[in-house]
Amino acid sequence: MNFVEEPKPRKLTPELEQRAIEFHGHDGPFMTIGLRMGITALEMLDCKGWFGLNCEVRLNWAPPDSCVIDGIQSSTGCTMGKKNITVIEQPGVEAVFTSRDNKSVRVKLKQEVIDKLKGSMTDEEIPHSLIKEIEEAPLDQIFEIERG
């Protein structure tokens, strides 16, 4: 078996975003949220990605919320196929990441951010400014983060 040797990037780069767009099929604020959630977990848990990390995503399992899942898969390498990502249907958008050494971090999207995004999006149009806001926002403006 050939394993990836380099760790997953721990910052949002144009290359990471492009790979995520190709995986997901389009860009969008909820996918970008998933990218940032995953990057935050890799950094806080000092994980390489792909293996040695599990993620439990808790959200409404329907678009646009579920787009977060593809962002997390793209940024962390946790995938449905490896069964190191699971989804639980519940209100809100959050993910709990657990490392091989049982350290964990919970990253929850603030409700006011969810409300703002959903109030600004339509099925036909996603303002690019929303994606840019999510890309550039300080973590504490969009997430509640808790170490476990």
Overall geometry comes to: globular
Q: In what range is the share of β-strand residues? A: 15-25%
Low-pLDDT parts are none
Number of DSSP helices? 6
Structural class: alpha+beta
The major β-sheet equals: 5 strands, mixed
Count of DSSP strands: 5
Order of helix and strand elements from N to C terminus = HHEHEEEHHHE
Intertermini distance: 33 Å
**Name of the CATH first level:** Alpha Beta
Q: Could you tell me the radius of gyration in angstroms?
A: 14 Å
CATH topology category name? 60s Ribosomal Protein L30, Chain: A
- Average of the residue pLDDT scores: 94
Strand order of the largest sheet: 2-1-3-4-5
Descriptors:
alpha+beta; 5-stranded mixed beta sheet; 6 helices; globular; single chain; about 150 residues; 60s Ribosomal Protein L30, Chain: A
Strand and helix map with partners:
Layout: H1 14-24, H2 29-45, E1 53-59, H3 67-76, E2 85-89, E3 93-99, E4 104-109, H4 111-120, H5 128-136, H6 139-142, E5 143-147
Parallel strand pairs: 1-2
Antiparallel strand pairs: 1-3, 3-4, 4-5
Explain what this protein looks like in three dimensions.
By secondary structure, the protein is of the alpha+beta class. The chain has one domain (14-147): 60s Ribosomal Protein L30, Chain: A (2-Layer Sandwich). Helices cover 41% and strands 20% of the residues. It is built from six helices and five strands, in the order ααβαβββαααβ. The chain has a five-stranded mixed beta sheet. Helix 3 links the parallel strand 1 (53-59) and strand 2 (85-89). Helix 2 packs parallel to helix 3 (67-76). The N and C termini lie far apart (33 Å).
